[in-house]
Design a protein that fits this description.
The chain is an alpha+beta fold. It is built from 15 helices and 18 strands.
């Protein structure tokens, strides 16, 4: 619909609104009460259609009018509530002259309420025969044209409310998102985990390598950071005696936006005492298969044309083996920083952090291996220098008991056996501070209170964080993270003003 035509429609609807007010008709009443939903009616149709007759039972429903077909003294409309869509038939002689005159001033997009019995049309469609009609809310702006809908991604994300009105598949994504979060929550609750809430404003950012957003608290006279992860607070709770704890959390990282990144995102983090990273890998396999079955009906899904099986045993491979077997890097140069930098240049991989070999290795992995990991794959054996909160491996103290989970070329989860040695943790923090002083803005800060907490003793513990947004992408076959976040962050537009 052109801007000029839209303006004409808006002006006409404003005129109708003014006329209604002049006639003492409230276009935004607040005394509407409904007794049924479309689903309630559909349940009766499915279970006891013989009970539905024109003389009753009667139903009172409300919803947004999505289509109208007027014939003078009678009209068909389609309206939709949160549970579904239904056809209604209005006759002037049944609803009365006044109500029918009001109906004639309504438009597609208006919210209406109706009462009546059910009948079947000549085509067999169950239809509400209205004997009462009310305007619930007058819409001023027209909906997009029915057959074109709302397709422009830019407008869909900026004006999600229109997207949800017009696109049933979008509504389904966010219904599934809610199911996914609830399913993961129930999985952990059933394993005797305790759900908690930890601060979202931190005096010291920690728990991940990321650039934080900074804010200022006037009364306290101090800067605070929107959390980049809840990890250090959750582990303080483990020290306090909560041996199994989790949080569905919002994190904020001052980074770029892409199909896989949004500066505000959702994760679930959980910690289990007397468990190892291997225990959590087993738990994750079971969790994902259970959630997939609950949300999609099967442990096997299709994502962007690829069949992904959550039900089979997942592949496990070390980081160094993945670099050689999948990334094509000669094993002989994996400990040679200079040769790795030269190799990266031949593959067009840009390295911004070349001071430490662990950073180079993980960057090469991100570029050469991660996109190829389609089936669920655990990568283990990360270097200590890129895992400042992870427990050292007993087999090789240069590596950690850590895994990252990759599916469909995306990192989905990160977990490890937690470092609970306060002296080792203090040394790791000091190294991170040195890295920060050397120009690494994403390195960890020193957190002395967390060290103090560890000095009181944290039992052997394993923890994991799962990216909810990316999990939702997988289970809804969505190519972009913006498709699964209701209001994704976007660059401001003049149209938003």
């Amino acid at each position: 619909m052109s801007n000029e035509k839209t303006s004409d429609v808006i002006e006409l609807r404003r005129k109708k609104l003014a006329d209604l007010k002049d006639e003492n008709v409230n276009p935004f009443p607040n005394d509407i009460r409904i007794e049924h939903t479309v689903k309630d009616i559909q349940n009766v149709i499915d279970s006891a259609p013989d009970t539905l007759k024109e003389e009753g039972p009667f139903f009172t429903v409300a919803g947004r009018m999505m289509a109208v077909n007027r014939f003078g003294k009678s009209s068909f409309i389609r309206f939709r509530d949160r549970t579904g869509q239904l056809q209604a038939y209005l006759r002037k002689d049944l609803v009365g002259n006044e109500a029918y005159a009001l109906f004639k001033k309504t438009d597609v997009g208006d919210h209406v309420s109706l009462s009546g019995a059910m009948f079947q049309t000549k085509t067999g469609e169950w239809t509400l025969l209205a004997n009462k009609f009310n305007l619930v809310c007058k819409s001023i702006r027209p909906l997009p044209e029915k057959f074109h809908g709302l397709k422009d991604p830019e407008k869909r994300y900026r004006q999600r409310y229109i997207d949800l009105i017009m696109n049933a598949d979008v509504r389904d994504i966010f219904k599934k998102r809610s199911m996914i979060v609830q399913s993961v929550r129930n999985f952990l609750l059933n394993m005797d985990y305790l759900e908690v809430e930890t601060p979202m404003m931190h005096p010291i950012p920690g728990g991940a390598e990321a650039t934080p957003f900074v804010t200022h608290h006037n009364a306290l006279g101090m800067d605070l950071f929107l959390r980049i992860a809840p990890e250090l607070y959750l582990k303080r709770l483990v020290v306090g005696g909560f041996e199994r704890v989790f949080e569905v959390n919002r994190n904020f990282r001052n980074e770029g936006v892409s199909t896989n990144h949004n500066p505000e995102f959702t994760m679930i983090e959980f910690y289990q005492s007397y468990a190892t990273f291997e225990d959590l890998m087993n738990l994750t396999e079971t969790m994902f298969a259970d959630v997939a079955r609950e949300v999609t009906g099967s442990a096997t899904i299709t994502y962007q044309g690829e069949t992904i099986d959550f039900g089979s045993k997942w592949k496990r491979i070390t980081l160094l083996s993945a670099l050689t077997e999948i990334g094509g890097i000669d094993e002989e140069i994996l400990n040679d920083r200079k040769k790795l930098i030269e190799f990266a240049a031949t593959r067009g991989v840009t390295l911004t952090k070349t001071g430490r070999i662990g950073k180079i290795i993980t960057k090469l992995f991100d570029a050469l291996v991660e996109p190829k990991l389609v089936q669920p794959t655990f990568i283990t054996g990360y270097p200590v220098e890129v895992s400042p909160l992870s427990r050292r491996s007993d087999k090789n103290p240069e590596l950690t008991d850590r895994f990252e989970l990759f599916i469909a070329g995306k990192e989905i989860a990160n977990g490890f056996s937690e470092l609970n040695d306060p002296f080792d943790q203090n040394e790791r923090f000091e190294q991170q501070v040195s890295d920060r002083d050397a120009g690494d803005d994403e390195a960890h800060f020193m957190d002395k209170d967390y060290i103090r907490a560890l000095e009181f003793g944290m039992p052997p513990t394993a923890g994991e964080g799962i990216g909810i947004d990316r999990l939702v992408m997988l289970l809804t076959d969505s190519a972009s993270i913006r498709e699964v976040i209701l209001f994704p962050h976007m660059k401001s537009s003049e149209k938003d003003q």
